[in-house]
Amino acid sequence: MQLTFDLPRRMGFSRADFLVSDSNVSAMGWMDRWPDWPSRSLALYGPAGCGKTHLVNLWSAQASGIVVAGEALTEEVVADLVLRRQCRIAVDGADRAPETELLHLYNCCLETRGSVLLAARKPPAAWDITLPDLNSRLRAILAVEMGRPDDPLLAAVLVKHFGDRQLHVTPEVISYLLTHMERSFAAAADMVGRLDALSLRNQRAITVPMARRLVSENRLHSSSPSSDAGVT
Fold it and tell me: Which residues does 222 contact at the CB level (< 8 Å), separation at least 6?
């Protein structure tokens, strides 16, 4: 008897895990150009699930920096970062950061010849900022857009996720998912994980009818109120 185990899997943020296409090639290029950034700061923006968090983590590893969630940027956190002389900082979900703390962190990083990478769904110029000093600084930052994954990229992501789980699926399954699932990296990872679990549970190969069932369940689930504030 063959035993199957639904083992937990971590989200990969390595360079090999990031697939480049027209939707993100400009953003990837700017990561590679660091530290040659205008004003030593940069902003990435784009819809949820387009890969901003992945690039933020890639940059942090490259720059020996750290990543802070915008909503976690408290006065105490900023004080600790300044005390430890952390001057290469990425703020993921920067539009959710408290304005005073974000301004203080930004100033400290640049005053110590560091770098700041901000990630959000909209460009900084479109944020609702009340502090004039922060507003002027944000409007001066180079903002680089990341688009939703196109078909070739999303297909490659699906194939990679299935391959990482040692799953073989037909091209018809990939084609069905491309035209029916939410177009984001997060949705692709979630869908592959759920198909894997269902396949293990039923001891059956992944098929288009199985994918159709899960897509229908996702649509029912998404019709209820929920928040995707942490998905970037």
Answer: 182
